[in-house]
Inverse folding.
């Protein structure tokens, strides 16, 4: 009954879904492409043997790379179907995997749409990244005896409380999973409380993602051009954070310090450029060239180059954490040996953040003023920055190995399902 009511609700809000697509399509026309796929209508030819991996957007698409490579090595006779929900995620998939995977949008969670998805692709099994729990999708997979596992699973205390309020709907969905590879013991405990049965703590796949060599080289070339100017990076900032970052920037007294500002979402690049112009700052956009000696802010309006920005920077602030948005992931920064500052709101990546702080790779600040003071102090303390760089490298290396553990767990779950 709960799933029936949920499905009726989805049908009722269909006009709102279309309005949202049209609204987002105003800034990013790609949202209006492949519309049929969002309702389970596909044109892609289907190979005989297929493994389905779902990564909702950019972060998950890049994070799942070592697992996809492991799946291809373990099941070489199968192709990989990579589904997502956003155009930026699809573009990231094209950049990372090229023609090695088949890409499509996962349909909205209408009963008919998910039925068409499984009829068209008939995957041998499926892997959902992080916490993608869709009741009709998982019910359809269970009805067709398609094993589906949750990989790199995480669930914050806040999200667990939200799911708990919908227990009648989500407990059957969690119970339908053939296995859950959780990032931490806390994640596993919270997911088990919602009905999942077969769980293992495997760590975080993002530690196994090696920054692309061409991005590292690009960051080094930028550094050579910029020279000895101190550089601090505000990475993956979210709406409402840029004014706070600029407030912090005004407190940085280090001569010639360059702020590299990279918004999280590409549809906001022009908006942030306008904000910087209103502030009277000397700005250069990445898309138009490299910063000049008198440039105050370099706006990173590019996709897929975050490792290059981390390589360039002496210090990085991780966005989404000054406002109660949960923060973005600091693991890529650590992999690039970049010291990190985070704000008070990191509940989306709490364990990784706390571990990085404990390791000396990151420091928490509680306000824009504190951010400015920390940047000002650290850019003048090369010894402390060097110690944080070494700590970041050690932290990243010490947490690797999740891919191998996940592949073993997936094989174990599939063996139990088959038997």
């Amino acid at each position: 009954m709960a799933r029936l009511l949920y499905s009726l609700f989805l049908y009722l809000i269909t006009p709102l879904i279309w309005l949202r697509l049209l609204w987002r399509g105003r800034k990013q026309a790609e949202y209006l492409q492949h519309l049929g796929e969002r309702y389970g209508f596909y044109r892609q030819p289907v190979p005989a043997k297929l493994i389905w991996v779902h990564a909702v957007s950019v972060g998950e698409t890049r994070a799942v790379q070592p697992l996809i490579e492991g799946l291809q090595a373990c099941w070489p006779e199968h192709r990989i179907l990579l589904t997502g929900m956003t155009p930026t995620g699809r573009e990231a998939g094209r950049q990372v995997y090229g023609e090695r995977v088949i890409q499509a949008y996962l349909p909205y969670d209408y009963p008919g749409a998910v039925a068409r998805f499984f009829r068209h692709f008939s995957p041998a099994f499926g892997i959902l990244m992080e916490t993608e729990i869709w009741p009709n999708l998982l019910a359809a997979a269970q009805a067709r005896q398609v094993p589906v596992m949750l990989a790199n699973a995480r669930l914050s205390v806040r999200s667990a409380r939200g799911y708990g309020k919908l227990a009648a709907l989500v407990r059957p969905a969690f119970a339908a999973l053939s296995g859950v590879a959780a990032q931490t013991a806390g994640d596993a405990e919270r997911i088990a409380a919602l009905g999942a049965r077969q769980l293992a703590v495997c760590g975080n796949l993002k530690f196994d993602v090696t920054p692309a060599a061409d991005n590292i080289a690009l960051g080094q070339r930028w550094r050579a051009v910029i020279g000895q100017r101190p550089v601090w990076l505000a990475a993956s900032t979210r709406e409402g954070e840029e004014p706070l970052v600029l407030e912090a920037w005004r407190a940085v007294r280090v001569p010639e310090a360059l702020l590299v500002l990279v918004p999280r979402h590409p549809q906001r690049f022009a908006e942030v450029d306008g904000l910087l112009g209103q502030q009277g700052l000397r700005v250069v956009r990445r898309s138009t060239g490299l910063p000049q000696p008198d440039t105050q802010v370099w706006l990173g309006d590019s996709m897929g180059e975050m490792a290059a920005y981390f390589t360039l920077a002496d210090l990085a602030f991780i966005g989404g954490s000054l406002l109660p948005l949960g923060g973005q992931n600091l693991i890529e920064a650590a992999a690039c040996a970049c010291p990190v500052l985070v704000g008070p709101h990191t509940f989306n990546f709490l364990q990784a953040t706390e571990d990085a702080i404990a390791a000396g790779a990151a420091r928490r600040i509680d306000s824009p003023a504190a951010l400015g003071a920390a940047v000002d102090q650290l850019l003048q303390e090369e010894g402390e920055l060097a110690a944080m760089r070494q700590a970041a490298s050690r932290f990243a290396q010490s947490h690797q190995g999740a891919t191998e553990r996940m592949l073993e767990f997936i094989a174990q779950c599939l063996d139990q399902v088959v038997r």
About this structure: The two ends are 31 Å apart (CA to CA). DSSP finds 19 helices and 14 strands in the chain.
